[in-house]
Amino acid sequence: MCGIVGYVGDQNACDIIIDGLKKLEYRGYDSSGIALCKDGKLEVHKYKGRISNLEDAISEKNLSSSIGIGHTRWATHGAPSDVNAHPHTNLNKTIAVVHNGIIENFVELKEWLIKDHDIVFNSETDTEVIAHLISVFYEGDLTDAVYKAVEKMRGAYALGVVCSKEPDKLVAVRKDSPLVVGLGEGCNFIASDIPALLKHVRKIYLIENNETVVLTKNKVTLYNAERQEVKRDVFHVTWDADAAEKEGYDHFMLKEIYEQPKGIFETLTRRLNEKDEINLDGISMTKEDIERFNKVYIVACGTAYHAGMVGKFIIEKLAKVPVEIDVASEFRYRDPFVDDKTLFIAVSQSGETLDTLAALREAKRKGARILSIVNVVGSSVARESDDVFYTWAGPEIAVASTKAYTTQLVCMYLIALYMGRTKDCLPVEQYNHYVSELKDIPDKIKQILNQEKNILNMAKELYKQEQVFFIGRGPDVGVSYEGSLKLKEISYINSFAIAAGELKHGTIALIEQDTLVIALATQDALFEKMLSNIQEVKARGAYVVGLAKENNKEIERQSDKVIYIPECMDEITPLLSVIPLQILAYHIAKLRGCDIDKPKNLAKSVTVE
Ligand code: F6R
Questions:
Q1: For 173-203, what is each residue's pLDDT tens digit?
Q2: Is 604 a catalytic residue?
Q3: How far is the C-alpha of 596 from the C-alpha of 179, rounded, in Å?
Q4: Residue identifier of the C-alpha nearest atom 10 of ligand 1
C-alpha cells in the first residue's frame, strides 16, 4: 500500500509529483504530502485526506523546484493525520523520506535513536525512524547514509530520499515493495507503479529487491546490496497512457467492467494459435512436468482467491488432478503438503500482494513448481515465479477488481485445457467445444452489458437494503463470493455468500421478511436443487433475485426478480454470471453515494501482512 513518486530534472517537480500521486491514489488515499528541495532548503507540505487537500493547500504558494518526492498513504502505523503523513524528515529538516512498506523493527530502532542520539519523534509512524537513521549516518554522502540505514532495517520498503545538502540527487531503495524508475531526457523519475510516469516516459527500469538507485537529472545508476553497480535492460511500456484514464466513464470501475470483452479476447487470443491450440510461449513447463504433478495448489487473496475457487472446479474437471485452494495469509502460516510434485498457482492482479508473495516463496522453498497468473508485468510475483501466465486486462485502477477477475478465470480455463490435453484425459472434441465457447464469451458479455439499464432499475429498488445473501452451487459458489465481495467493498452493505446447500445448516436463521437473497442458478445440472434452495428462503419471506441462463425460465416463477445470462456450457458460466453482479454492485454503491473507485479503508495493492 501507499504510493511514492520522485522527480529530478528541469521541469517543476511539484506539478509532476502531484500528478503522479493522483495516478497512485489507488494504492492508498488517507493522506498525502510532498517534499521539495530549493535554495539549499527542504520544503515539506502534508495533509490528511485526499490528494486534492494537498493540492488546495499548496495551490497559492507557487511552489517550484527541480527535485522532490511525494507520497499518498494507506495508514499502517499511526492514524491518518497531517503529522503522520509522509514525507518524514530528520530533526534539522535536511533529509526527507517517503516510504511504502513496513519497518518491522521500528520500535527497537526508535528506542536506540531516542536513547543514544536524543532524537525527539514527531509522528507515530515507522517511517520517521528511517529519516532519523539516515541523518545519524550522514557524513556528506546521502547514498552511503542510506546504505547504512538500510542495513539496520528489517521489513518491506520502497524508499525515496532527498537531502537539501545534495540538491541534485535522489536516492531510492527497494525491498519487497514495488519500485520503478522512469528514464527521461534531462530528467528521471521514481514511482511505485508505471501509470504514475506514463505521461512523461515509456522507458522504465524495473528495480529488483535490495537494489539502490541514485538518480540525477542526467544519470540513473543501480547498485546491488554489496554496493556494486548493476546493469538493467530497459523495459519499454507499450500500453497506452489512456488505459489509465477514465475516458468519459463516471468511474474507473465502470470503465473496467466495460473493458472485459477486450481483456478476455486479448488474454485468450494471445494463447491460441490459428488451429486453436494453446501455445505456452515463454512458459518452460514441459509435458513431463505436467505428468509429474500429483497436486495443484492455488493460492491468492480476495477477488483473485475467488477466481481460484472457480479454477479448482475447472482444473479438477478438465485436468483430472486434485486441486487445493487457500487464502495466502493462511497458507503461509500452516505447514501445507507441498513438494516437487506440486504445481503452485499464485494468482494476483498486482503481483505485489505481500501475503501471496510470501506464500509463493514458502511453496518454492518446499520445491513446488511456481506458475503465476499476474496482470502487472515485471511485478514481484511475476519475477519470482518459474513461469507466468499473464492476464491481458490492461491497468486496473479501481480498487474493486473486475476485469482482472475475469481474465484470471480465462487463464484458469487455458491452464486446465492445456493440462487436460497434455495428460490425454480431455478428448479433443471436448477441448474444441470449450475453446469455441470461450471464444464466444466477449460477445456474450457485450449482450449482458447491454442490460445495464435494467440492472440500474433493479439497483434503484434494492439500494436501501442493509443485508444481502448470495447463494449458489458448484462454480456458482465462487461467483457468489465474488458478487458479495464486490457489493460489500463498494457499497458497505453487509453481504454474505454461502453454498446454497449449506444455508440450512445455520445461516438460514438470518433470513426473514424481505431479506434480499441473490440466488445464482446458472448450472443446468444443479438447477432443480437451486430452485429448492430458493423456495426455502422464499418460505421465510426472502426477496429473491434469481440469476440463470436465459432458457431456464422456470426461475421466474420462484424469484421476485430475474437476471438472465446468455446460454453457454455450465463450466463457462462464471465468466458471464459475475458481470451483472459487478454492474449491480456498482449502481447500488452509486445510488448510496459511495466513493466507488476509492472505498473506505481499502487500497488496491496490499503490500502489508
Ligand atoms: C477486491 C480486490 C481484492 C484483491 C486482493 C488481491 O475487489 O481487488 O480483494 O483481489 O487484494 O490483490 P491482487 O490480485 O493484486 O493480489
A1: 999 888 999 999 999 999 998 889 999 999 9
A2: yes
A3: 27
A4: 303
